[in-house]
TrEMBL record, chain A:
It is a multi-pass membrane protein. The chain crosses the membrane at residues 33-51, 58-75, 81-101, 155-176, 204-223, 243-263, 270-295. The lineage of its organism: Bacteria, Pseudomonadati, Pseudomonadota, Alphaproteobacteria, Acetobacterales. Pfam families: BPD_transp_2 (PF02653). The keyword Protease does not apply. InterPro entries: ABC_transp_permease, LivM-like. This is Branched-chain amino acid ABC transporter permease. PANTHER family: ABC TRANSPORTER ATP-BINDING PROTEIN, HIGH-AFFINITY BRANCHED-CHAIN AMINO ACID TRANSPORT SYSTEM PERMEASE. Keywords: Cell membrane, Membrane, Transmembrane, Transmembrane helix. It comes from Teichococcus coralli.
Automatic annotation (TrEMBL), chain B:
GO terms for cellular component: plasma membrane. GO terms for biological process: amino acid transport. This is Branched-chain amino acid ABC transporter permease. The keyword Transmembrane applies. Belongs to the binding-protein-dependent transport system permease family. LivHM subfamily.
Amino acid sequence: MRRHADLILALLGALAVLALAWAVPWLRFVLTIALAKGLAVLGILLLLRAGQVSFGHALFVAFAAYVVAFLAPLVPEVLLLLPLAALGSALLGLLIGLFVVRYREIFFGMLNLALSMVFYSVLEKFYAVTHGTDGIRLAPTTFAGMSLEGAAQGWSALLLALALSLGFGALVRLYLASPMGQALAGIKTREARLEFMGVSARRVLLSAYVLSACMAGCGGALIAMTTRHVTPALAYWTASGELVFIAILGGAGSVLGPFLGALAYELTRVYAAALVADAWQMILGAVLLLVILFAPGGLWGMGRTLLARRRSA
Amino acid sequence: MADWLAQNGLLLGLAALDGLSNAAAIFMVAVGLNLVFGVLRVLNVAHGSLYAIGGYTAASLGLLLAASGLPEWFSLPLLLVAALLVGAVLGPPIEKLLLRPTRRYEPVLQLLITFALFMILEDLQKLVWGVQPVVNDAPLRLLGTVDVPFGADVIPFTTYQLFVLPGVALVTLIALAWFLRRTLSGRMIVAVTADAEAARAMGIDAGRVMLLTFTAGAALAALGGALASPTVSLVPGVGAQTIVLSFAVVATAGLGQIEGAAIAALLIGLGRAFAVYFEPELEVVIPYLIMVVVLLVRPQGLFGVVETRRI
C-alpha cells in the first residue's frame, strides 16, 4: 500500500511541477534548478542513512558542470553529454570514495570539504584552462538532434530533470530496500556488528558514495545546461552546505523529501532572498535549527504527521 | 640550489617568520576546538565565528580606546579583555541553550546544529561590523620592529608578530598542559574526555565540566582572533577560513592532542607562509594538502591514538 502511495505522490508532484511551470513561465528555470539540486540532495540522503554527512558534495556537482562545459563544443548532444558527465562524476566518486570511506563522521565530512575546496581552488586559480571566476559560457547544444531555443530548450531541460528525478528516486528506493541499502543503515547503528556478519562496511559505503556522486553529477550537468554558464562558485563549500541544508529541511525519511525540500528552498529563495539579502544566511541557519529541534522529520515528516492526524480524527 | 638560496634566502627567512606568527594564531583556535571536541564530542563548526568575533571585538575596543585618549599601551591587555568578554558572553548560552538539550542527538545532527549556529553568527557579524575591512594595528605599531639577523642580512620584523603572538601561544600550550595534567579541574576534564559515563560514576559533575570547557574553548578561539586582529584586516568569511584551517590542524595532529596540535599548527602555518611567498596559487590548498597527505598515511593523525572499537 505504502509503495503505491509514494508512487502516486511522486506523480502528483511531477504534475504539479509541470502545471506550475506552464502557468508561470519564468518559474520553469527555478523549478529545473530545484529538481537538479534535489538529485544531488538525494545523494546526501543516501550518506545520511549511513550516519555520514558530506560537506563537499558540491565537488561532484561542479565537476559534472565543468565536464559539460568543456565537452559541449565537441559533443553538442545533451543526451550524450549528460551520461558522460554523470559517468565522469561517478568515476571521480569512486576515486575519492576509495579514500574517504575509511573515515567516519567529522573526518568524513571534513575530508569531503577539504577535497571540494581543493577543486574550487584549482578551478579558480588555473585561469588559462578554466577562466577562473569568470567561468565558462556553455556552447550551444542540441536535444536529440534538434537545436532548441528559448522556451523549448527550457522545457526540454525541465522534462529531463523530471524524468531523472523520478528515475533516480525509484532507484534509490529500491537500493535502500536491498541488502546493500539495509547494510548502509547498519553503519550508522553499529559498524562492528556489520563486519562480524562478514559485510565489508567500506564497500557498502563506497557503493553508496559512488551512487551519490553520480546523482550529484546528473544534478550538476542539468544545472550547467539550464544556467548555460559554469563558475567555480558551484564547488564552493557553501554550495555543499546548501545541499546538506536541503536534505534536513526536506527530511531524510523518504526519497521524496529531497525534492520537496529543494522545491521549497528554491521557491522561498526567489521571493525572500531579494527582501532580506543581508540576513539570508541567518534565516537559513535559524530554520535549520528549528527543523532539527522541533521537526526532525523535515517537511516530509511534518506533512505525514498532519496526514496521519487527519486520518485518525 | 646554492644560487637559488642566495637569491631567495631573505624571502625564505621572511616566510619562516610569517609562518611562525601565523601558526601561533591558528594554534590558539585549534587547541580550543580540540578541547571542546574531546569533552563534548561535538565538532563545533561555529568555532571559527568565535575567532572572527573575537577579532572584531578586539579591533572595535582598540578603536574606542584610541578615540577615548587613554594611554595607547592599554591596547595590549585590551586584546585579552576582548577575548574573555566574547568567551563569557557567547560561550555559556551556546552550550546551555543549544548543545546541552541536544546531547542525546545523533552526532550528525549535533554537527549540523553548530553549522546552523555558524550561519547565524556569520550574518550577525556582518550586521554588526559591516562588510568593509576593520583594521586596528595599534598594538603592532606600539611595539615597533626588531632586526632579525639572517645570514649576512637582517630582516626587519614586527616585535608583536615575533614575540607577542608566539609567546602567548607558547604560554597557552604550557599552561594548558600543566592545567590538564597537574590540577584537579584539569584531570576532571581529562576524565570526562576519556569516558564521560565513568567520570560521572566517580562523582564528577560532567555537565559543569562541559560548560567550563566550552566557555574556555570559546575564549581561546576569541583570543586567537583578538591576537591576530592587529596583523590582518578583518573581512566577512574569515570565520569560515579559520574553522577549516583549525580543523586541518586538529585532524593532522590527531584528536585530543595538545602538543601535537602545536606541531601541526607550525607545519600548516609554515606551509601556508612558504606558499604565499613562492607559489601564491597554492596558498589556499596547502593546509588541505598537508591534512590529506597525513591522513592518507596515518588515518588517526600524526600523534593520534587509535580508538578501540565498540561492539
